[in-house]
Structure formats: C-alpha cells, structure tokens
Amino acid sequence: METCASPVNGQNVPGGSHLEEVERDLAQMNALLEAAIEKLLVSFMAIHRGVASQEAMLRDSAVEHPEFSACTARMESLRVDIARHVSQAVSGLQFQDMTSQLIRRMATHLSTLREEIGGAEPCKPQPRAVSQHHMECGDIELF
Amino acid sequence: MTEGKTILTVDDSGSLRQMVTFVLKDAGYDVVEAVDGQDGLEKAKTRHIDLVLTDQNMPGMDGLGLIRALRTMKKYQSVPILMLTTETGDDIKAQGRAAGATGWIVKPFDPARLTEVVRKLIG
Known about the structure:
The complex is a heterodimer of chains A (143) and B (123).
Chain A: H1 16-64, H2 70-93, H3 95-117, E1 140-142
Helix pairs in contact in A: 1-2, 1-3
Chain B: E1 6-10, H1 14-26, E2 30-34, H2 37-46, E3 51-54, H3 63-71, E4 81-85, H4 90-99, E5 103-106, H5 111-122
Parallel strand pairs in B: 1-2, 1-3, 3-4, 4-5
Helix pairs in contact in B: 2-3
C-alpha cells in the first residue's frame, strides 16, 4: 500500500507512533486479504474446471448409454444448481476489491491526519469512497 | 457467435481481473488483461479488441482517461466500452457518458448479467 512521503516522524507527533502502527496494520490486513482471496480464487477455479469435466463425461456417457437417460433430468437440475452457486461465489469473491479500496482510503486518511497533526500540508489526494454496504450485485445501465 | 471475439479487461485489482476473465472465458470469449489505464491503452493499440471493460479508479491513467484516449483512435470510435466500477454517482456516470462510455456496471457484478450485456453488444 502506498503511503505519503512525509517529513513528519511518528516520534514527533502526539499519538504519531500509534497512527503509524495503525497504518502498518492496515497495510498488513490488505496484503493478507489479497493473499487469502488469491488462494480462494485458484481453488475455486480448479473446482469449477473439475466439475465441468465431470459434467462433460456424464453427458457423453448418457449419449453412449441410453439406459442412463433417466439420470439426464437429475443431471440438468444439478447443473443449474452448480451454475447458481458459481454465480454467487463470483459475486462474493469480489468483496476483496471493495474492502481493499476502503482500506487504502483509511490509510490515506490516517497519513493525512498524521501530517496535519504535525503541521505539514497534506500531500496526497483522497481516494473516493466506496458506497456499497452489502454484497448484492450492482445495476447495469447502457447509455 | 463469441468465437474470435476479444475483450480487454482493465482493473488494478488482480482478483477482479481474474473473476472477469473467468466469467468471460467461460462464456467463450478471449480475454486480454491490463493492470491500469496506460497498460490497457498499450494493449489496445497492439491488438484487435471487440469490447473494453474498465474500472474507473486506478493508479496512473483512470478509466475515464482510458476511454477518452481510446475514443481519439479511429479503430476504437465505435467499439463498446463498459465501465465496471464501485462508483454509483450520477456526476461520474455523466462524465463517463460524455467521455464515450457505452454503459455502466456497478460492482459487484452478476456473472450472468455481465455475460448477457456483453452478448447484447458484441454477440
């Protein structure tokens, strides 16, 4: 996470060392969150590939062996369920992007606060806020 | 229908890029990834791109900057460009529209609806 280069040292500002600790913790939290989601994504995609291969094999078997046709409806129902869960997982995994933006914004505010307490001029533009308060999918608008 | 169609996805978040790529490849599209507006612009210059999907808030060149730069290039004057962003304000949407965005998608995106809107635009 970027931090503003500042002449203000944590030791010289009242509470500055605490602010520096919070900034470091936020940076670590952001890195851990990113690493965790990266691992989840890799596993999720591997599972999806495996399930897709299984589906394809079962479809081929049903074509070659008509006696399996009774299973076709059940397979289709399972396919729909899996697609719904995949969709929900894709939506849910996007939370890391939004929380990272919020963490960066908090870190920038802390950095600015430390500079202002120390009498320095803030040197970094504030990132824009994230307005989402829940994980429901957003709107799509075509102009 | 989707065969040979290439989509450029531009986002500084690696996880978001992977999610978009996963969804669009699953729908049959080729996907090129870029980490910010400048990277997106460079990749757009050297490849044939059928649709661009870009974040707004990125270090360096942001989404609006990328759209403005692409719209000055003859080959991108009519290519659909969708914003995929956490931004929901009317003011920024109006800026996007003025810059030449084709549409606005608010994160988190729904995979089925994203695919549906991409199909509607490029088949």
